[in-house]
C-alpha cells in the first residue's frame, strides 16, 4: 500500500473511465455509418433490373475490439466496390478519407496500459533489492535461513500480485463502461480474445517488472536503478517504436505509388484495345432506348433485334476479358502492397527488441486490427467477388443471355417497330436477388490468430525468463552490506 | 554565491550516471537522425525535380499557343525543405501535389512514397528528441533536486549558511538548464555536422537564424519541465514520491493529451466525405444549368455552332467561367471542411505544452500543416498572376475575342483567346516563398506566449513551495 501503487491504480482506472466512453462512442458512430451504408447497398440491390448492373459494395464492419487496440483500423479501406472489371481499393487514403487527420496519434486502451502500466511496473520494482539494502533490511532478511532464490521469487510474486490489481481494475472498469453502450455487443469469440488480451497484459507487466528487478539487483543505490530503468523505458516506449519505422523507411524504401498507377493504366489500355479488337465488327448504336439503373449502371429498355444479337456477342466476348484483366490488375496491386508490407514487417521485426512493441503487436493481433487482418479482408473481398461473378455467370449462361443487359424479350422486337419508351420502362421489374451471395465480413477465426499471437506471447515469456535469470545471477553476487 | 551553486549543480550532474546516459542517448539519436535525414532529403529532391521538370517541360510545349497555356493543368509539388531537419511536422501525411489550371483549382493530393500500413510515426528530429526524450530527461535531472538534498541532509547545511532560499532555487534552476543544454547542443552539433558534410542540404543564413530560434524555443520548453520538477520536488518529502508524480504528469502531458486530438475530432463527426463532395458538385452543376436556362448569362449561352454570329460567345464565356467558379468553390469548401477537425483537434491538444512547442517550431521552420495552408494560398495567388499575364498577352492580339474562358470548343472554333505563341521565359512560374523569421514569429506568438506563461506559473509555484519547504 505505497504511494506509487495507490497513484498508479487510481490513474489507470481514471484514465480507462475517461477514455472508454469516448472510444465507445467513436466505435458506435462508425457502426452507425456502417449500418447505413449496408442498408443503402441493400436498397440499391433491390432496384437491380439486369445482371450487368449488379455492382454492390462490400463494407468492412468496424471491429469492436478496436477500442482495445486500434492498430490499423482507421487507416485501411472501409469498403470496396464489387464489379467485373473493378479491383478492390487499397487504402482509405485513396477513398477520400481526411488525410489531414493523420497528424494525430492514435488512442486506445493499449496505449494506457502500455505506457502507464509499464512505468508502474518499473516503479514497483526499482527498489525491491537496492532499496532494501539502503534501509538495511536486506541483511536481516538474508541472515534468517532464507535462500536467495526464495527472496527473489518472493519479491517477484509479491510484485506481480500488486500489479495484477491495476490491470484487472482497468479491464473491469473498461468492460463495465462498454456494457452501458447499447450498440456495443461483444460476442462469444470476442470474450476469448479479451481474456487473451488480459493474459497478455499480465505477462507484459511482469516482463517490465523483471526488467526493473534486474536493475535493482545490479545497482547498489535505489535512485540509480530507477534512473537506469527509466532510461530503458524511454528507449523501449518512445525511441524503438518510432525509430524502427524510421529506419525501415530508410533501409527499404517503398516504390512510388505512381509507378503502380502507371502499370494499372497500361493494363487498362491494353484491355480496352483487346476488347475493341474483339468487338470491332459489332454495332453498339442503332434504334434503342437506355435507362439509368441501380448502382449508376445503364441498361437497355428496348432495341432492335440485330442490335440485340450484337450486344449478346459483345458481352460474351468482352466480359471474360474484363475479368481476366481485373485479376491481372489485382496482382499488380498485390505486388505493390507486398512491398509495403515487407517494409512494415521489417519495422516490426526491428521493434521486437522492445517488449512494449511486442505487446502492442500482440494486442493488435488479438483484436484483429493488424496487417494480417487487412490481408484477410482483401482476400475475403476477392473471394466474394468471384462468388458474385459465378452467380452472374450461372444466371446468364456466361453473359450470353439478354437478361444480362436488358429485360426485353427477343421475340417481341422486330425490325422497324415503334416502341413506347416510357411504357416499356414502367414494365421492367427488379430482379429477385435473394440468392445472390451477400458479403459477410467476419474477423479471422481465433484458431488462425492464435499461432501468430503465441509467437508474441512466447517472446514475452522468454523476456520474462531471461530477465529473471539475469536478476537471479546478479542477486547471487549481490553485496548486501 | 549563485555562481557557486550553479557550478556545484553542474559538476554534480556531469559526474552522474543519468548525465552520461542522456548524453549517449541524445548523441546516438541525433546522429541517426542526421544520416536518415540526408538520405530522405536526397530522395525527395530527386522526386521533386523529376516532377517539377516534367511539369515545366509540358508547360513549355503549351507556350506555342497562348490558349493552350490557359487550358493546361499544372502540377506543383512541395519542395523538400532543409529546415525539416528541425521538425518534419508530419508532412509525409499531408497532400503534397497541387493540380490547377488558370481557371480550376482541385483538391491537393498526397503523392509520395508513403506507406499507409506503417501506422503513424514521427520522424526523429530535433523537436521529437526535445519534446519526448529531453523533457523526460529534464524530469530525471530534477525529481530529487530539492527533496533529494533534504534526504541526504545537505539542504540543511546549505540553508544554515546564510544563503537566501531564492538564490538556491535560481542557482539550481540555471544549473539544471545548463546541464540539460549540453546533450541537446552536442547532439544537434553532431546532427548538423553530418547534414552539412553530406553536401546535399543547403542551409542559408536565414535558416541558421531559424534553427537558433528553434533551439531557444526548445530551451523555453525544457525549462517548463525543469520548473515542474522543482515544483513537485519541493512539494514532496521523498524523492521516490516526487518521481511517481512527475512520471504520471509527463505521461499525461506528453503522451495522452496529444493523443486526444484524433479521437476528439472523430467523435465530433466533422470530416466531410467523398460522397458529400460529389453531391455538392452535382448540385453546383444543376444550379448553373438552371441559371443558364433562366438567361442569367445572356441569350444563347452554351449554344454551339461553327458560326459565332448565331451564338453568343460572351454569354458562353460567362457561363463556362461561372461553372468553373462554382466547382472551385465546392472544392475549396471541401478542403476547408477537412481542415476544421484538424484545427479543432490541434486547439484542444494545445492544453499540453508539448503540442504548443511542436506547433510553434513547425511555424518557425515553415513545415507541417501551416506550410500546407500557405502553399495552397500561394498556388492560388500564382494562378491569379498567370491569369493576369494571359490577359495582358491576349490584349496584344487583335484577332482574339478577348474572352478568357476555359472552353475547348469556344477556343477552337471561335478564337475567344489568342492562338499566338508566347515566350516560355516570360510566362510566370511558380516559386514557393518562405515566410521570414519575423512573420513566422508573429504567427507563433500565441504558442510562444503560452509556453512562457507555463514557465512563469511553474516558477512562481516552485518558488512559493520552496519558501515554505520544511528542510528537516
Description:
The complex is a heterodimer of chains A (about 475) and B (about 475). Chain A is mainly alpha-helical and about 475 residues long. Chain A has one domain (about 1-480). Chain A is built from 13 helices and four strands. Chain A has helices at about 5-45, 110-125, 130-135, 135-145, 150-180, 190-220, 220-250, 255-280, 305-350, 355-365, 370-395, 420-425, 445-475, and strands spanning about 55-60, 80, 290, 300-305. In chain A, the strands form two sheets. A two-stranded antiparallel sheet of chain A has the order 1-2. In chain A, strands 3-4 form a two-stranded antiparallel ribbon. With about 475 residues, chain B is an all-alpha fold. Chain B has one domain. In chain B, about 70% of the residues lie in helices and about 0% in strands. Chain B has a two-stranded antiparallel sheet. In chain B, helix 4 (about 125-140) runs antiparallel to helix 9 (about 240-265) and helix 7 packs antiparallel against helix 8 (about 205-235). Classes of the chains: A mainly alpha (about 475), B mainly alpha (about 475). The interface between A and B is large, with 74 and 75 residues.
Mean pLDDT of chain A: 85
**Over the alpha carbons, how many angstroms does the gyration radius of chain A reach?**
31 Å
Physical arrangement of strands within the biggest beta sheet of chain A: 1-2
The fraction of residues in strands of chain B falls at under 5%
How many extended strands of chain A?
4
Amino acid at each position: 500500500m505505497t504511494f506509487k501503487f495507490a497513484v498508479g491504480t487510481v490513474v489507470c482506472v481514471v484514465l480507462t473511465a475517461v477514455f472508454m466512453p469516448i472510444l465507445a462512442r467513436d466505435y458506435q458512430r462508425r457502426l452507425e455509418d456502417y449500418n447505413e451504408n449496408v442498408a443503402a447497398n441493400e436498397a440499391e440491390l433491390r432496384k437491380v433490373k439486369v445482371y450487368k448492373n449488379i455492382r454492390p459494395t462490400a463494407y468492412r464492419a468496424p471491429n469492436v475490439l478496436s477500442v482495445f487496440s486500434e492498430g490499423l483500423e482507421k487507416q485501411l479501406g472501409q469498403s470496396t466496390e464489387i464489379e467485373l472489371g473493378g479491383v478492390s481499393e487499397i487504402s482509405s487514403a485513396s477513398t477520400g478519407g481526411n488525410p489531414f487527420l493523420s497528424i494525430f496519434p492514435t488512442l486506445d486502451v493499449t496505449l494506457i496500459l502500455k505506457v502507464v502500466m509499464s512505468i508502474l511496473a518499473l516503479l514497483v520494482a526499482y527498489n525491491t533489492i537496492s532499496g532494501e539494502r539502503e534501509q538495511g533490511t536486506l541483511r536481516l532478511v538474508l541472515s534468517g535461513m532464507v535462500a536467495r532464490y526464495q527472496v527473489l521469487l518472493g519479491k517477484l510474486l509479491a510484485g506481480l500480485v500488486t500489479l495484477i490489481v491495476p490491470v484487472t481494475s482497468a479491464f473491469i472498469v473498461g468492460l463495465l463502461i462498454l456494457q452501458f453502450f447499447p450498440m456495443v455487443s461483444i460476442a462469444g469469440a470476442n470474450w476469448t480474445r479479451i481474456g487473451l488480451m488480459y493474459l497478455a497484459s499480465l505477462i507484459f507487466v511482469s516482463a517490465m517488472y523483471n526488467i526493473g528487478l534486474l536493475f535493482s539487483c545490479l545497482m547498489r543505490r535505489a535512485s540509480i536503478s530507477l534512473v537506469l530503468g527509466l532510461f530503458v523505458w524511454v528507449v523501449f516506449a518512445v525511441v524503438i517504436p518510432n525509430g524502427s519505422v524510421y529506419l525501415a523507411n530508410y533501409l527499404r524504401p517503398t516504390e512510388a505509388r505512381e509507378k503502380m498507377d502507371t502499370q494499372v493504366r497500361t493494363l487498362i489500355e491494353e484491355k480496352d484495345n483487346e476488347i475493341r479488337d474483339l468487338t470491332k465488327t459489332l454495332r453498339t448504336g442503332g434504334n434503342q432506348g437506355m435507362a439509368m439503373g441501380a448502382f449508376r449502371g445503364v441498361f437497355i429498355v428496348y432495341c432492335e433485334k440485330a442490335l440485340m444479337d450484337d450486344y449478346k456477342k459483345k458481352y460474351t466476348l468482352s466480359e471474360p476479358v474484363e475479368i481476366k484483366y481485373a485479376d491481372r490488375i489485382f496482382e499488380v496491386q498485390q505486388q505493390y502492397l507486398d512491398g509495403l508490407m515487407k517494409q512494415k514487417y521489417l519495422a516490426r521485426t526491428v521493434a521486437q527488441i522492445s517488449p512494449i512493441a511486442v505487446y502492442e503487436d500482440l494486442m493488435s493481433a488479438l483484436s484483429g486490427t493488424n496487417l494480417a487482418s487487412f490481408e484477410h479482408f482483401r482476400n475475403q473481398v476477392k473471394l466474394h467477388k468471384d462468388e458474385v461473378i459465378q452467380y452472374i455467370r450461372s444466371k446468364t449462361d456466361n453473359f450470353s443471355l439478354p437478361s444480362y443487359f436488358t429485360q426485353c424479350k427477343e421475340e417481341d422486337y422486330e425490325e422497324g417497330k415503334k416502341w413506347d419508351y416510357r411504357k416499356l420502362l414502367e414494365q421492367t421489374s427488379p430482379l429477385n436477388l435473394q440468392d445472390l451471395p451477400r458479403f459477410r465480413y467476419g474477423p479471422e477465426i481465433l484458431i488462425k490468430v492464435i499461432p501468430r499471437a503465441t509467437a508474441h506471447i512466447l517472446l514475452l515469456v522468454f523476456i520474462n525468463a531471461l530477465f529473471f535469470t539475469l536478476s537471479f545471477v546478479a542477486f547471487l553476487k549481490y553485496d548486501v552490506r | 554565491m549563485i555562481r557557486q551553486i550553479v557550478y556545484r549543480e553542474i559538476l554534480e550532474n556531469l559526474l552522474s550516471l543519468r548525465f552520461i546516459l542522456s548524453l549517449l542517448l541524445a548523441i546516438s539519436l541525433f546522429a541517426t537522425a542526421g544520416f536518415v535525414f540526408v538520405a530522405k532529403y536526397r530522395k525527395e529532391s530527386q522526386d521533386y525535380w523529376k516532377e517539377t521538370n516534367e511539369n515545366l517541360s509540358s508547360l513549355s510545349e503549351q507556350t506555342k499557343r497562348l490558349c493552350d497555356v490557359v487550358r493546361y493543368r499544372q502540377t506543383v509539388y512541395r519542395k523538400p525543405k532543409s529546415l525539416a531537419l528541425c521538425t518534419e511536422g508530419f508532412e509525409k501525411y499531408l497532400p503534397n501535389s497541387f493540380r490547377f489550371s488558370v481557371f480550376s483549382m482541385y483538391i491537393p493530393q498526397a503523392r509520395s512514397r508513403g506507406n499507409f500500413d506503417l501506422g503513424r510515426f514521427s520522424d526523429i528530429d530535433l523537436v521529437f528528441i526535445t519534446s519526448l526524450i529531453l523533457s523526460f530527461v529534464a524530469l530525471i535531472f530534477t525529481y530529487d533536486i530539492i527533496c533529494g538534498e533534504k534526504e541526504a541532509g545537505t539542504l540543511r547545511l546549505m540553508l544554515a549558511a546564510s544563503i537566501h532560499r531564492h538564490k538556491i532555487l535560481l542557482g539550481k534552476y540555471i544549473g539544471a538548464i545548463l546541464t540539460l543544454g549540453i546533450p541537446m547542443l552536442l547532439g544537434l552539433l553532431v546532427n548538423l555536422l553530418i547534414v552539412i558534410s553530406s553536401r546535399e542540404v543547403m542551409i542559408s543564413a536565414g535558416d541558421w537564424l531559424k534553427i537558433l530560434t528553434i533551439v531557444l524555443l526548445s530551451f523555453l520548453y525544457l525549462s517548463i519541465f525543469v520548473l515542474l520538477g522543482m515544483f513537485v520536488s519541493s512539494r514532496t518529502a521523498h524523492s521516490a514520491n516526487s518521481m511517481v508524480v512527475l512520471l504520471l504528469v509527463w505521461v499525461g502531458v506528453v503522451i495522452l493529451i496529444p493523443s486526444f486530438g484524433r479521437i476528439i475530432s472523430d467523435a465530433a463527426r466533422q470530416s466531410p466525405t467523398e460522397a458529400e463532395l460529389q453531391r455538392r458538385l452535382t448540385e453546383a452543376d444543376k444550379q448553373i444549368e438552371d441559371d443558364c436556362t433562366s438567361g442569367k448569362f445572356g441569350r444563347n449561352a452554351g449554344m454551339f455552332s461553327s458560326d459565332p454570329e448565331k451564338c453568343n460567345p460572351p454569354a458562353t464565356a460567362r457561363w463556362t467561367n461561372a461553372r468553373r467558379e462554382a466547382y472551385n468553390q465546392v472544392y475549396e469548401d471541401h478542403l476547408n471542411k477537412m481542415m476544421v477537425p484538424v484545427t479543432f483537434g490541434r486547439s484542444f491538444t494545445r492544453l499540453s505544452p508539448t503540442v504548443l512547442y511542436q506547433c510553434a517550431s513547425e511555424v518557425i521552420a515553415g513545415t507541417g500543416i501551416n506550410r500546407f495552408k500557405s502553399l495552397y494560398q500561394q498556388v492560388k495567388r500564382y494562378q491569379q498572376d498567370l491569369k493576369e499575364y494571359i490577359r495582358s498577352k491576349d490584349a496584344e492580339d487583335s484577332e482574339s475575342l478577348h474572352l478568357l474562358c476555359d472552353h475547348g470548343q469556344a477556343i477552337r472554333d471561335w478564337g475567344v483567346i489568342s492562338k499566338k505563341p508566347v515566350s516560355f521565359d516570360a510566362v510566370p512560374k511558380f516559386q514557393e516563398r518562405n515566410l521570414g523569421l519575423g512573420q513566422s514569429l508573429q504567427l507563433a506568438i500565441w504558442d510562444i506566449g503560452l509556453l512562457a506563461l507555463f514557465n512563469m506559473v511553474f516558477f512562481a509555484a516552485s518558488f512559493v513551495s520552496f519558501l515554505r519547504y520544511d528542510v528537516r
